[in-house]
Design brief:
2 copies of one chain form a homodimer. Chain A has 14 helices and 13 strands. The first copy, chain A, is 33% helix and 19% strand. In chain A, helix 5 crosses helix 9. By secondary structure, the first copy, chain A, is an alpha/beta fold. In chain A, strand 3 and strand 4 form a beta hairpin. In chain A, the strands form 2 sheets. In chain A, strands 9-8-10-1-11-12-2-13 form an 8-stranded mixed β-sheet, sandwiched between helices. Chain A starts with a helix and ends in a 9-residue tail after the last helix. At the A-B interface, helix 4, helix 5 and helix 13 of A face helix 14 of B.
Chain lengths: 402, 402
């Protein structure tokens, strides 16, 4: 569906939509287990499933494994390929760095160079977070910043970090310096477009200094840059869908993604009761609520079946009744993608969706699970279609044509 | 999904994918029978169905009946509309004619003209294959080929054949000479683009001679040309998906289609045991195997329920265990399209798909049939999506976005 078409049909209304996202919720049966969602005891979700309609949605396209960035853009109703944002931005989101329009952000790896300047380890022996922080401080204290430029360097974890330069007329059209292999030198941050000449020179100067500053380090004696991106603001959900959107999320990455589409982001919640308290306190002010739960994904990545299942049960026990007490016109319960615990990684399997509203065409499902979703009434659809369906259930989309 | 996106995500790996295609497998219930696949005894396929996931896939789009060419392109992961190849090429494939880049191929019909030069029978009374061969020889022995041109004329069957001209700077942008109706003269092979002027003159000269050479024939006294196409090589599966692809197929058409996407084509197999022997002997050398069985389609076209069912049972007995003995990481069992025996023709019904891999999201299906596929976990998807899903199950696609 073309975004401008949805924009034209969107009408503001007082109805309320809640989108509850259990990150990485989708899973597959493995090792004699059903999926965590299948095996979890979820009386509240099951009641909603019986009253609502289920389906399975592809975050990007069938067979494509999504990162969290594009998967959430799909959830929010933005074409995830057209609106794909750079990894630098997502790194900045991930650590809660406030990007501005004058910034170019890049992901960094600390790496090891030999005496000939060839990369011998692209991850600098996976140094500790503390070591990472020490080296970042060392660089920041010694670097003479090029004229007119502000410089930021932030630890992510292990060998990973974020580099941001702030200034006038900067461009993200710069070649990665990571050679993606060992035994060769780092690459130059060459301009990929004429407007990036200045940025290239700035980065070149910074990298020469960094090489000098780190020359006495054993492991992390250089940095590699990739995934440059300037700050990008997408058209807001208010503009596109006519909703006043509020984000309730613990983790910086998802708070950043919500910012990207113009949501008002609440402070991180402390526990599920707190998340519901925030929802209640903001209920009158907003018409769309994005409530994000991270732990389902984290335990999936850890390969922890029991804990992933437990999070789902806790959500069922605390969050679901908390939301339903507010009588939303539409409740969506889903994940952004699948993170099967047996794979310890994101996967391509479609994400299970439960849609609850007075106006859904109820299907035969009696429980909420990936397997029920396979035969659910919504069928199998691209994830970007979920928002328009929810908007219509909430009376927020006008008729197309006469 | 944009093909360049898949190309960017594809990673080579040592895992093995087998795509077993029973041509025209899909069917519909008729005359008190279930479908041949439903009624066949297929314990091996049923076991795979219970362990795997089913779905129904549209070769082109819902409601569209495909030819073998586009249906196979969809199977191989190529958009069947964008990459549609001319009928001339498919005719050449069908009779095993080796096209070169200097060739333009066209399908021919022998036809009957009256004394005024009007077409009275577009199929020349459906002459016999022998008669077709005799007339082809007659033309070839008498034709004075235009300078710089090689000329080929090959019998297909009845009134149908293949005409190929080979030379420099030939173009397939030529108008059909078949008027598609009787009572009017044949059309001229007019150029549809400036670069086709030379080709048009060559064909004009050839057709004038053919008219002369066949003037003493009663039925087949002229030929009609249509579906011109130059040789086209699509980007190879190796380039697009990072797989080393091997084709094991009896029939020239499918061997030709496999060539088109850069597969290494094995000599025609003699029976199913031989097909499996070839698979085993090539197992180490390749990472993707296309194994094609023609007879399901042939018996469908013949309206022969029992024999279509029998072929499926033979595949279940010999080919399926033969493949599984090699422990492929992913096995796809499907058709290229449906050929209902009660219709004696290709149809638009989606093709049933069985996907078997350690990493599928298993569904509730316990048997492999079109009817089980209707509620299978893969849902209903365009056939071009099957390859990306299989590639991901085999660990051959990287994540999109961070």
């Amino acid at each position: 569906m073309k975004p401008d078409l949805i924009e034209k049909l969107a009408v503001e209304s007082d109805s309320r939509i809640v989108m509850l996202v259990m990150d990485g919720l989708g899973d597959i049966p493995a090792s004699g287990h059903g999926t965590p969602l299948q095996e979890a005891t979820t009386p509240n979700l099951d009641k909603l499933a019986a009253e609502g309609v289920l389906g399975q949605f592809d975050p990007i396209a069938p067979g494509i494994t999504p990162g969290s960035g594009p998967a959430h853009l799909g959830l929010f109703g933005y074409d995830p390929v057209e609106n794909n944002v750079g990894r630098g931005i997502l790194s900045a989101f991930g650590i809660g760095f406030d990007l501005t329009e004058k910034d170019v952000a890049a992901r960094i790896n600390f790496c090891t160079l030999d005496s000939n300047g060839n990369v011998t380890d692209r991850r600098a022996g996976r140094i500790s977070d503390d070591e990472n922080r020490r080296i970042c401080e060392k660089i920041k204290s010694k670097l003479r910043t090029p004229a007119g430029i502000e410089f930021f360097l932030e630890t992510e974890s292990q060998h990973r970090g974020l580099l941001v330069i702030r200034g006038n007329d900067l461009s993200d059209q710069i070649a990665d310096t990571d050679p993606q292999q060992t035994g060769v030198p780092t690459r130059e941050p060459k301009p990929l477009a004429a407007e990036a000449d200045h940025t290239s020179k700035v980065l070149m100067e910074i990298l020469q200094q960094v090489r000098q500053i780190l020359s006495d380090e054993e492991k992390a004696n250089m940095i590699l840059l990739r995934g440059y991106s300037g700050f990008k603001q997408l058209p807001s959900m208010q503009k596109r869908f006519g909703v006043k959107a509020c984000a309730i999320a613990e983790y910086p990455m998802y708070r950043g993604l919500a910012t990207l589409v113009g949501m008002t982001v609440q402070p991180p919640y402390t526990d599920f009761d707190d998340a519901i308290a925030v929802l209640k306190s903001k209920w009158k002010e907003f018409t769309f609520f994005f409530l994000h739960v991270k732990k389902t994904d984290s335990y999936g990545e850890d390969g922890n079946f029991e804990s992933k299942k437990q999070v789902i049960e806790d959500v069922d026990k605390v969050i679901v009744p908390g939301i339903m007490a507010m009588k939303p016109d539409v409740l969506i319960v889903t994940g952004d993608h699948s993170t099967p615990w047996s794979m310890k990684a994101h996967s391509w399997h479609p994400t299970p969706v439960l849609l609850h509203s007075r106006l859904v065409r109820r299907d035969k499902s009696e429980r909420f699970s990936e397997i029920e979703c396979q035969t659910g009434g919504l069928g199998r659809l691209p994830l970007v279609n979920l928002m328009p369906i929810a908007l219509s259930c909430a009376g927020k989309l006008a008729k197309f044509g006469a």
